[in-house]
Design brief:
single chain, 452 residues, alpha+beta, Cytochrome p450, 2 domains, 13 strands, globular, binds protoporphyrin IX containing FE, Cyt_P450_E_grp-I, heme, Cytochrome P450, oxidoreductase activity, acting on paired donors, with incorporation or reduction of molecular oxygen, oxidoreductase
Length: 452
């Protein structure tokens, strides 16, 4: 990896984003063409000020500045209007909690993602990936986005709850989660808060889906609490967690909020990235051929399992590179809790910052030929080309994705299980363009499976 130059001696370029309008500032540009607009800003400076309405908001366009923000979680806390809108949906879990409470929560949830636990969840991943590959029919087009969403919803739900309640709960989560995610995104994007209050069918569907999910999670948490067994799943780990400082357990409401948070954070992100991976493979035959060669060699026709993951190195590099080009968490926010200084620029309390892995991952200074899908840029001998701290699909610091290993393992197993049986071909005439929604999605992606 490249090393940093001394940040104290650096002279940072501070700039204002061009083209703001009176009253709305840059809000329309951000709402209409977020990826194009944000990606145009690193050319202007290392720290760029834009206005959302009348409020100054900052986009750090250099990895050192992004790292500084993400690693100072007390000063740059999660916050702002997006978090306030997420609270009624997610309650007070890892994503919505403030800095002080987050530390305690993270300590409690972390053991559920311990390597030994991931190995257990990998059994579910292995079964579901093989089952997904089984349902496809040669020559019959399928919506890959839909298939990947179904796969990751089933994996996450079964990793969470492994009991006899699983079939019903998995079906309910598959039905209600996408409605909940769409509704949450609409609310996050509406600065007025009015859309949520209109008597629209979409709002009624959202409220019903949210109520069903809450009821389901309440019932399952109640059942687990009653039985007291460790079923080896995520929920058992959450219920068993004890705070190392005060020995306390999480309340049912706290566990409930963590479960909602894990569902919202874990399903669509992994599904979007997997969908992009299939699109990239179909349009990059050399990477696809090497994937096929690797899965044939490592698996020899077997269903992939956890122990295979370390040997599926090209498969992992494909997913790593997919996350660079199309990071599902394309933008997230922080708000300052006290006056501070970034890049030598004074920021007041309450200043909002936008962190965009999508923007950083496409700056040529940090990723040579950034538009090119090149899984080999992650070969150990080429790792020096990538500037330290510039690869951010899972964030950084104390709020870094808790499900990063879970997601990587799931995606590696899914790519290997499916690629060992199928080659996915694009349906002619389909145009694919990234859509910056709750995740960075490809929208519907019809493809035709061909047996290998
Ligand atoms: C490829 C898949 C994934 C990507 C790209 C991704 C990305 C991210 C990012 C960027 C963050 C940090 C956001 C911030 O700093 O504000 C995050 C946090 C989080 N992710 Fe993931 N994630 C993925 C998969 C998962 C999975 C599978 C789970 C759970 C099963 C999960 C659960 C969470 C949780 C709970 C948080 C909040 C962590 C905290 O604040 O302590 N994610 N994720």
């Amino acid at each position: 990896m490249k090393t940093d130059s001394d940040p104290t001696r650096r002279s940072w370029r501070i700039a204002k984003a061009p083209g703001g309008l009176p009253l709305v500032g840059h809000a329309l540009q951000l709402a209409r063409r977020p990826l194009e607009f944000l990606s145009s800003l690193p050319g202007a400076g290392d720290l760029v000020e834009l206005r959302l309405g009348t409020k100054a908001t900052y986009l750090p366009c250099h990895p050192e500045l992004v790292q500084q923000v993400l690693r100072s979680a007390r000063v740059y806390d999660t916050g702002g209007p997006v978090k306030e809108k997420a609270r009624p949906i997610l309650g007070n879990g890892l994503i919505t909690s403030d800095w002080a409470d987050h530390r305690r929560q993270r300590r409690m949830v972390q053991p559920a993602f311990h390597t030994a636990r991931i190995a257990t969840y990998a059994v579910v991943m292995q079964e579901e990936c093989a089952a997904q590959a089984e349902t496809w029919r040669a020559g019959r087009p399928l919506d890959v986005a839909d298939a990947m969403q179904a796969l990751t919803a089933r994996v996450t739900a079964r990793a969470l709850f492994s009991t006899e309640m699983a079939p019903h709960s998995v079906a309910e989560i598959q039905r209600s989660l996408p409605v909940m995610v769409r509704g949450a995104f609409r609310r996050a994007m509406d600065p007025t808060g009015l859309v949520a209050r209109l008597p629209l069918a979409a709002n009624r569907e959202f409220a019903a889906a949210l109520a069903r999910l809450h009821r389901l999670i309440d019932a399952i948490v109640g059942d687990y609490r009653h039985s007291g067994e460790d079923r080896g799943d995520l929920l058992s780990a959450l219920l068993a967690a004890r705070d190392e400082e005060d020995g306390g357990a999480m309340t049912d409401q706290e566990v409930h909020d963590q479960v909602m948070t894990l569902l919202l954070a874990g399903v669509e992100t992994t599904a979007s990235a997997l969908t992009w991976a299939w699109h990239l493979l179909a349009t990059h035959p050399e990477a696809e051929a090497r994937l096929h060669a690797e899965v044939d060699e490592v698996l020899g026709g077997r269903v992939p399992e956890y122990a295979d993951v370390p040997r599926l190195v090209h498969t992992q590099r494909i997913f790593t590179e997919t996350l660079r080009l199309y990071p599902p968490a394309w933008m997230y926010t922080r708000t300052t809790t006290e006056p501070t200084e970034l890049a030598g620029h004074r920021l007041p309390t309450g200043a909002d910052l936008l962190i965009s892995p999508y923007v950083i991952h496409r700056i040529p200074e940090f990723f040579p030929r950034p538009e090119v899908f090149d899984p080999d840029r992650w070969l150990p001998e080429r790792a020096g080309e990538v500037a330290r701290g510039s690869y951010l699909p899972f964030g950084a610091g104390s709020r870094k994705c808790i499900g990063d290993v879970f997601g990587m393992t799931e995606a590696t197993l899914a790519l290997a299980a499916i690629a060992s049986r199928w080659r996915l071909r694009p349906v002619p005439g389909t145009t694919v363009a990234p859509r910056a929604e709750m995740s960075l999605t490809a929208g519907r992606l019809p493809m035709v499976p061909e047996p290998r």
